[in-house]
């Protein structure tokens, strides 16, 4: 199938827009490839002694004392045993080291990165560290790889900011071949619909805290990724469609024998494409404009997380590539929605995987000319080889067979010829407030256009107080400002979801407008998020007053305030939150220098180029 004309056009304009910055980035890769510091045999004996001192039986191989240098794999791990998705990574380094030895290589844990759980910090002070932790993870990854004694890298991470941060850090050492190794989702527990019902009952005062806790524990009950389709599982889809996973690796359960086998296979493949091989595949060359267009297409086709309108531009910028929300918007118009996974449907990611999973989605997109089949990958020849699913062969080795040609459940997964929706799940809104993003894949079409008076808040807590005092039982557009990257680190406002959902179910016309974020599992309430410019940067959202009529139109892509905002004086912003507790002072410099939401909301090396 020929490449769709819009895919081709968007890719071309990204390439032209990014030409200068991409050339600078690729020149950096070229310099690292020939730099003596990239060859362990050129590193001083004292330095190498430090690098190999703890390598045990692998010491001589790490030191590279023989005439034939063995590949040494650097492991960057996001392991901790608080985050369920990352708990399985505890034993991965031992598995990887053994697998490396089996193919004549060595492996070392190069470093660890922090991995916070947004599920724990929702609505709490820790959430103000969440988005910017991505940049800390990127820097931590860079620190781990800075020892410069590795021929390839394996990144162990799954969840929200962790994978984008790992990608950004790996791209800063873009000459290294890098494979991402997932851990898989937890088994299906209490259904997401049942969990949401209890949350709403609790918000109404109709369920006890004990009942709420029992429900939540039944939903989040073991190791692995949370099973709804939020940012973490969107990450896993992205790593496959961007060619950084072994195909089909994302949604195999942590305790499945195939999960262990895929980790071994990933290690073997890292050796096969390492700098000591004849098939070197640097991550900085793999992640080009085609890879990022494929990522956006995958996001639309599966109804993925709104957080990736922040993360993908940030990741791309690290590779010298300039993404804009217009790219997301134009691709959304021609990419159909193929998957319905909670909150966009009843199924979880285990059901999605069983129905055909990512291999099926990639095959459909390839056949329709909606992705770049020739995009480079860490496995196979290119993305055209990723329409497969893994299994065991006769020798208990991993083999790949063609992905299913038909969905096993059309309520979950559909072909391009009969999609859930003709257009993607994410849209950009423009208008008198600037730019914003909305996820519509879970929003009923009857609510794609909302007009209602504004009620303005400067914090999540103010909204909760107004709800508790019965002040919101009416048609209303909740404007929650002072939540952008420079204000307070751009926390998710997901804890508002049950409250706003209740108002909507009571028959009110309700919407949310904010310069902050919602969860990657943004649901059924129309929400214009990531408004930029943000309030503290002089954005028009700071001028909205109670009673202003706001129209959110997801059909035409407009967000409009029926007031002359230009005639209003920008209010003095004196109510930035006190940030002298719960670790927030440590992030002051990151907040102060944060990019706009469209630029990624954190550190952006290309600011000034856009």
Unreliable sequence segments = none
| Global morphology | globular
- Number of E strands: 14
In round numbers, the mean pLDDT is 91
Which structural class matches the secondary elements?
Answer: alpha/beta
Q: What profile does the largest beta sheet have? A: 8 strands, mixed, barrel
Q: How many discrete domains?
A: 2
Residue share in β-strands: 5-15%
Cα end-to-end separation = 33 Å
Radius of gyration: 24 Å
In short:
The chain is 35% helix and 13% strand.
Report on the structure:
With 610 residues, the chain is of the alpha/beta class. It has 2 domains: 5-34 and 70-187 and 222-402, no CATH class; 426-577, IlvD/EDD C-terminal domain-like (Glucose Oxidase, domain 1). It has 22 helices and 14 strands. The protein has helices at residues 5-17, 19-34, 45-52, 59-63, 92-102, 118-121, 130-145, 162-171, 192-203, 209-219, 231-241, 257-272, 283-286, 289-302, 308-318, 325-332, 349-355, 357-367, 460-468, 485-488, 497-505, 588-592; strands spanning 72-77, 106-112, 152-156, 178-181, 388-392, 398-402, 426-431, 434-439, 449-457, 476-480, 510-514, 527-532, 549-553, 558-561. The strands form 3 sheets. It has an 8-stranded mixed beta barrel. The radius of gyration is 24 Å and the shape is globular. The relative contact order is 0.11. The mean pLDDT is 91.
């Amino acid at each position: 199938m020929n490449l769709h004309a819009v895919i081709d056009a968007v890719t071309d304009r990204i390439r032209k827009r990014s030409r200068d910055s991409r050339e600078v980035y690729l020149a950096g890769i070229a310099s690292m490839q020939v730099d003596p510091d990239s060859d362990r045999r050129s590193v001083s004996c004292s330095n190498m002694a430090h690098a190999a001192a703890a390598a045990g039986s692998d010491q001589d191989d790490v030191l590279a004392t023989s005439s034939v240098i063995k590949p040494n794999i650097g492991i960057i791990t996001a392991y901790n045993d608080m985050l369920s998705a990352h708990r399985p990574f505890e034993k991965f380094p031992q598995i990887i080291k053994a697998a490396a030895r089996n193919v004549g290589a060595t492996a070392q844990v190069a470093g660890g990165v922090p991995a916070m759980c947004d599920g724990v910090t929702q609505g709490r002070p820790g959430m103000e560290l969440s988005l910017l932790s991505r940049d800390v993870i990127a820097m931590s990854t860079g620190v781990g790889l800075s020892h410069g004694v590795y021929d390839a890298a394996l990144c162990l991470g799954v969840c929200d900011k962790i994978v984008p941060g790992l990608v950004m850090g790996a791209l800063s050492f873009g000459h290294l071949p890098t494979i991402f190794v997932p851990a898989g989702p937890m088994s299906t527990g209490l259904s997401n619909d049942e969990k949401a019902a209890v949350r709403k009952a609790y918000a109404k005062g109709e369920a006890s805290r004990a009942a709420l806790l029992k429900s939540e524990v039944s939903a989040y009950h073991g190791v692995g990724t949370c099973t709804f389709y939020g940012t973490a599982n969107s990450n896993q889809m992205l790593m496959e469609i961007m060619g950084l996973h072994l195909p089909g690796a994302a949604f195999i359960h942590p305790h499945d024998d195939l999960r262990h086998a895929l980790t071994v296979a990933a290690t073997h493949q890292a050796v096969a494409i390492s700098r000591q091989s004849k098939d070197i595949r640097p991550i900085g060359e793999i992640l080009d404009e085609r890879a990022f267009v494929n990522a956006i297409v995958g996001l639309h086709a599966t109804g993925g997380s709104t957080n990736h309108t922040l993360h993908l531009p940030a990741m791309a910028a690290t590779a010298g590539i300039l993404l804009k929300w217009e790219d997301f918007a134009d691709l959304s118009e021609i990419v159909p929605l193929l998957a319905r996974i909670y909150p966009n449907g009843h199924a979880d990611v285990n059901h999605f995987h069983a129905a055909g999973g990512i291999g099926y989605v990639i095959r459909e997109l390839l056949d329709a000319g909606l992705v770049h089949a020739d995009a480079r990958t860490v496995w196979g020849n290119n993305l055209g080889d990723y329409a497969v699913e893994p299994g065991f062969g006769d020798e208990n080795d991993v083999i790949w067979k063609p992905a299913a040609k038909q969905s096993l459940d059309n309520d979950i997964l559909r072909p391009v010829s009969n999609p859930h929706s003709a257009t993607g799940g994410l849209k950009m809104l423009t208008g008198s407030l600037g730019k914003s993003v909305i996820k519509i894949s879970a929003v009923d079409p009857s609510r794609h256009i909302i007009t209602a008076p504004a009620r303005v808040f400067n914090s999540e807590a103010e909204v909760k107080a107004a709800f508790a005092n019965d002040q919101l039982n009416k048609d209303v557009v909740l404007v929650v400002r002072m939540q952008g990257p420079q204000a307070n680190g751009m926390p998710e406002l997901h804890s508002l979801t049950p409250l706003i959902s209740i108002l909507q179910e009571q028959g009110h016309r309700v919407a949310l407008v904010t310069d902050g974020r919602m969860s990657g599992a943004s649901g059924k309430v129309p929400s214009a998020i990531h408004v930029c410019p943000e309030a503290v940067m002089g954005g028009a959202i700071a001028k909205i007053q109670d009673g202003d009529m706001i129209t959110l139109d997801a059909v035409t892509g407009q967000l409009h305030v029926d007031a002359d905002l230009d005639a209003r004086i920008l209010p003095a912003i004196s109510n930035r939150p006190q940030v002298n507790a719960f670790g927030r002072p440590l992030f002051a410099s990151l907040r102060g220098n944060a990019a706009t939401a469209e630029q990624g909301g954190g550190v952006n090396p290309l600011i000034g180029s856009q």
